[in-house]
């Protein structure tokens, strides 16, 4: 299958380009940036020297000629662009009959009103919100394989939902909101320069209290209220979430262990039991690591991912595999 990547110079786009370039059955047919991009004409490998020889491919402006090239040559279009950009681009490529994999949050939420509240814009294509399929690969694989528009799950939600859905589906959660404390590396904020992601400014600090856009994303796909607080940490890659769960009275450790068995055969999930996950254990890896410990009806679950792999490009590739009816982990294990 032939893949066009829009936003290929960004952190998730470049990561996805490297995965597609190494994949046995996928071919890059174009790497694109905005029409005004200062990087147009440059080789992607000149921005990311670690990909020299693998990605000696030019970044092209998303011009009328580019649209024609994509219409004629691409099967899959990946949008590694900001929400505002993806929201506008997705229908254009869907109208061409392409399968669209959007790494942004532009089509993840069901309710158009949530875009006013959490994203700060009125959604221009609410009809597509009904048709988009949420790309949380381990949980919606059949629906993903049939979809035209895949809204690849967010980075923080990917860790949180894989940690919590086993408990929710087994009916073990009490009515209390689940509390999620998450720390992300700075690549989570993208490649463009900004004061809050400046090397000298980043330490460890919370942001987005009560109003981060991943709060409705997690609670919508969990079916349970959450209190989610992200933090920005002074490291490049990785997300670690410490999640506080109040279980229903009388839930035993054996029931909790049994609930997690639903993920035991998922190739990109590593259940670690009482061994706590770490950022070091997942950086440059395609996995979600999940550990848990219980005391009475309190459970602490810890989940870790690489935000650019399982949290973005890795999961996008997993979704492309599912749409192509290949094993989800093809081209991911051993990256
Ligand atoms: N970074 C992460 O960990 C994760 C990111 N995501 C999501 O993925 C998307 C991309 O994130 P990230 O890689 O961090 O972003 P970056 O800021 O690193 O990259 C954005 C890319 O989009 C390009 N771009 C900007 N405007 C346009 C346009 N109008 N048309 C075409 N290309 C354009 C940029 O190039 P130029 O400006 O030069 O044109 C650049 O290549 C976002 O929606 C983000 O929320 C999801 C999960 C995790
Ligand atoms: C550290 C940092 O800034 N992280 C980003 C989340 C990563 C991301 O791009 O969000 P999506 O998964 O929704 O696309 C943020 O909090 O906005």
Q: Could you give the order of strands across the largest sheet? A: 3-2-1-4-5-7-6
Strand content: 15-25%
Total helix count?
12
Please identify which CATH superfamily of the largest domain we are dealing with.
Dihydrodipicolinate Reductase, domain 2
Subcellular location: Cytoplasm
Active site: 155
GO molecular function: N-acetyl-gamma-glutamyl-phosphate reductase activity
Main location: cytoplasm
Description of the structure:
With 335 residues, the chain is of the alpha/beta class. It has 2 domains: 2-131, NAD(P)-binding Rossmann-like Domain (Rossmann fold); 155-307, 2-Layer Sandwich (Dihydrodipicolinate Reductase, domain 2). 33% of the residues lie in helices and 23% in strands. Helix 8 packs parallel to helix 9. The radius of gyration is 19 Å and the shape is globular. The two termini are 20 Å apart. Bound molecules: NADPH dihydro-nicotinamide-adenine-dinucleotide phosphate and N-acetyl-L-glutamyl 5-phosphate. Residues 6-13, 32-34, 37, 39, 62, 80-83, 85, 103-104, 154-155, 187-188, 190-192, 307-308, 311-312 line the site of NADPH dihydro-nicotinamide-adenine-dinucleotide phosphate.
Task: List its traits.
2 domains, alpha/beta, 335 residues, globular, binds N-acetyl-L-glutamyl 5-phosphate, 7-stranded mixed beta sheet, 14 strands, binds NADPH dihydro-nicotinamide-adenine-dinucleotide phosphate, single chain
């Amino acid at each position: 299958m032939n893949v066009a990547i829009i936003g290929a110079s960004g952190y998730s786009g470049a990561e996805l380009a490297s995965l597609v370039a190494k994949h046995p059955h996928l071919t890059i047919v174009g790497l694109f940036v905005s029409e005004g991009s200062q990087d147009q004409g440059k080789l992607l490998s000149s921005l990311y020297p670690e990909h020299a020889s693998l990605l000696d491919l030019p970044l092209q402006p998303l011009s009328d000629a580019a649209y024609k090239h994509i219409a004629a040559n691409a099967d899959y279009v990946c949008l590694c662009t900001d929400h505002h950009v993806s929201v506008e681009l997705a229908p254009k490529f869907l109208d061409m009959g392409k399968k669209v994999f959007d790494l942004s949050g532009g089509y993840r939420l069901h309710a158009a009103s949530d875009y006013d509240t959490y994203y700060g814009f009125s959604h221009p294509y609410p009809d597509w919100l009904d048709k988009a399929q949420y790309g949380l690969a381990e949980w919606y694989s059949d629906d993903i394989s049939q979809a035209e528009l895949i809204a690849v799950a967010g980075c923080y939600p990917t860790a949180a939902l894989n940690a919590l859905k086993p408990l929710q589906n087994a009916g073990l959660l009490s009515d209390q909101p689940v509390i999620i404390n998450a720390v992300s590396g700075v690549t989570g904020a993208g490649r463009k320069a900004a004061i809050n992601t400046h090397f000298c400014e980043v330490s460890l600090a919370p942001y987005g209290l009560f109003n981060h856009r991943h709060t409705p994303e997690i609670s919508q796909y969990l079916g349970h209220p959450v209190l989610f607080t992200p933090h920005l940490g002074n490291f490049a890659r990785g997300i670690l979430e410490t999640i506080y769960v109040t279980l229903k009275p009388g839930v035993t450790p054996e029931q909790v262990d049994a609930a997690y068995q639903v993920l035991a055969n998922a190739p990109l999930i590593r259940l670690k039991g009482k061994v706590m996950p770490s950022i070091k254990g997942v950086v440059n890896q395609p996995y979600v690591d999940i550990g848990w410990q219980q005391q009475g009806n309190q459970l602490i679950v810890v989940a870790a991912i690489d935000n650019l792999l399982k949290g973005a490009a890795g999961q996008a590739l997993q979704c492309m595999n599912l749409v192509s009816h290949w094993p989800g982990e093809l081209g991911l294990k051993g990256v």
